[in-house]
């Protein structure tokens, strides 16, 4: 039955009408099978892992034009194989093809953060945190060059907000927003709200400066509506 199922999956993923869903179903099947094997025969684990790995590699080979394929593959290595280095290699290779993929940049940043989060040994390791920040800063620079979308920059800024060790990256994002998107009222409002929420600084002028600039760009009616909404 296992061989028959695998042959059917192989037929699908190698067919003319192959799709990402076919690969996902194949990988899911192998993951379920792997769990069953784990409960029965520990010695078979290596062989079964190799089979799933081959399915992932075939997925990349046949559907590399789809950014989601690279994200799915990277997530599999990170979560199912617990191999963060392999996951990062996959997502970075995907970014060489899809330089403007928000999905892959977000995945890459999350993977870098996961190297610190939940790792008791590294959570207090300032050098390890600094290295992760430098890597994320590199991603941010690529994002600014290849995408330069103010909404996406704010999305990344919000993602990093809960990681106190990423202050340098957050400051870089704020600098890029002010340099390249200072004519957009929602950028100033977002930054003002961020300062207000976090209370990260006692420098009230900074928060007021953001609000003043926002008020210069927004209409009176819109300003009142947003201020009432945000309190």
From TrEMBL:
A GO-annotated cellular component: small-subunit processome
A Pfam family annotated for this UniProt entry: U3_assoc_6
Domain U3 small nucleolar RNA-associated protein 6 N-terminal: 2-54
Gene Ontology biological process terms from the UniProt entry: maturation of SSU-rRNA from tricistronic rRNA transcript (SSU-rRNA, 5.8S rRNA, LSU-rRNA)
Compartments, record wording: Nucleus, Nucleolus
UniProt entry keywords in alphabetical sequence: Nucleus, Repeat, rRNA processing
UniProt GO MF annotations: snoRNA binding
InterPro entries: Utp6, UTP6_N
Full protein name: U3 small nucleolar RNA-associated protein 6-like
Organism: Asbolus verrucosus
